[in-house]
Here is the input.
Amino acid sequence: MLKIIYNLMKRVSITIMGKVIGVFFRAHVRDLAKDLKIKGYVQNTPDDCLLIVAEGEEKAIERLIDFCKKGPEGAVVENVKVKKEGFKNEFEDFLIEY
Here is the structure.
């Protein structure tokens, strides 16, 4: 039974490039992820990008990726890289990491 559930769950890492710092992008991602019951984290990277590691149902993950392609008001998204990973079920919540 758990194997069936895990097959429905997806894990991705998302890197967002552009003007994504200083526009509350991380807070918007956290709020959307919580609404979608996605677990994981979002953080700034040393090269002023955002990194998201997210686990959740496939449709929820797709909605998160769609949001990342445009971002909140004030953001200028230049590129979004999505890497599919194996589901690990390692997160309890969705957090902003510092």
